[in-house]
Each structure stands twice: as structure tokens, then as C-alpha cells.
Amino acid sequence: MYIVHSMFLVPVQKVDEVIEIYKNRSRLVDHAEGFITFRLLQNETKPGELTVYMEWETKEAFLAWVSSDEYKRIHELEKKYPDQELASIVPAITRYKVVAL
């Protein structure tokens, strides 16, 4: 199993807006080969800190997703988001190989 975290900081007054964006996400990734789950996490003590948590069967499945046309299409739309403050947020991405269950 392979896990990817994308942590990003959002201005507190825009957190609810970002959460709604993720609640209404395209769900294209849900159909990707090797995809297991998606979660949006909010830090309890720092509400502006959000993390996208994704599980994949393998690292190769994740890498295939990030090189797919669907992935590129989703991320191009993010760059065109009308709120440029949100569009310019760059996440800190951390990848993990699961070594024990």
C-alpha cells in the first residue's frame, strides 16, 4: 500500500469554501486503477491546515495517476480558479510506503 498526504494552509476565513470544493470534487481519481480511498483532513488545533489523504494499492498506481490526462485536467482547472489566493496555494506533499499493518 502507498499513501500520499498533500498538506496545505488556507486562510481561516476561506476554509469552509475549500472544504465545499472538496466535497464537490470531480471524483475522477476514484476510478483510477489502484486507487483505494480519498479523505480531506482538517487539523483540530489549526483549522486552516488541511490535508488530502489518499491510499493507493502501489506506488506505481499513484505514479500512473499523476501522469494521466485526468490528473492534468483537474490540476489545470485548479490553476484557473477565480480566487487567485486559493489557486496559488502549493501543498507540501509527503509519500509513504506502508511497511506494516
From TrEMBL:
It comes from the Bacteria. InterPro entries: ABM_dom (IPR007138), Dimeric_a/b-barrel (IPR011008), Heme-degrading_MO (IPR050404). Signal peptide: none annotated. Residues 2-90 form the ABM domain. It is an enzyme of class 1 (oxidoreductase). Keywords: Monooxygenase, Oxidoreductase. Its EC number is 1.14.-.-. It holds the Pfam family ABM. One of its GO terms (molecular function) is monooxygenase activity. This is Antibiotic biosynthesis monooxygenase family protein.
